[in-house]
Every structure is written in structure tokens, then in C-alpha cells.
Input
Amino acid sequence: QEQLVESGGGLVQPGGSLRLSCVVSGLSFVNYAMSWHRQVPGKERELVARITRTGDLTDYADSVKGRFTISRDNAKNSLYLQMNSLKSEDAAIYYCGANYGFTGRVAYWGQGTQVTVSS
Output
């Protein structure tokens, strides 16, 4: 059974950093492009960042460019999101997704991890 398990969320002050992780099992991780998304209550889930199967290409939402970095370790079936200079508007539930291609739809979702940015 396919599983994507996020971790690393929590409470951080504005300007702080967090590193999210997503461990994947039950599917061939190296065959999927991966992505991070976030959602706040009352709003649609939005794409934050995505990465190709090999990690050679990444893409970011304008709102996080220069502050967030997506990466992956295919040997560990793991996806990461390094988040620096966090702002209050970054607070959300963050989800990882395994995608049908770099620009394709999400095939599998994780359960999400909460990120709270507050002083």
C-alpha cells in the first residue's frame, strides 16, 4: 500500500526555519516526480514546490522563491522542504505528493503536517 508520511512541522517564529520530510513507501519513489503543497482553511490547496524524478529540475511558487528549497534523496525514498525566513502567511498544513510527471497531477498524497508561524 502506498504511503507518504510527512514530518517536521511545528511552531516557529517569523524569520525562523523548518525542514519538512516526506518518507515514501509502497511505490517506486524514483519513478515519481514529487511536490509539496499547502492548504489553509477555506482556501484551495496550492502548489509550493516540485522536483523531477532525478532532482535535476525544480520549480517554486513565487511566494516562496528564494526562501524554500525542495530536494530529494532517492536512496532514502525521501522528499524534503527546507523553509527559511518563514512568514506568518506560510502557516498551513503542508502535504507531499507523488506526481504523474513533473507537471502532472498528484497520484498519491500524504496526510499533511501542520506548520504554524507565530511569535
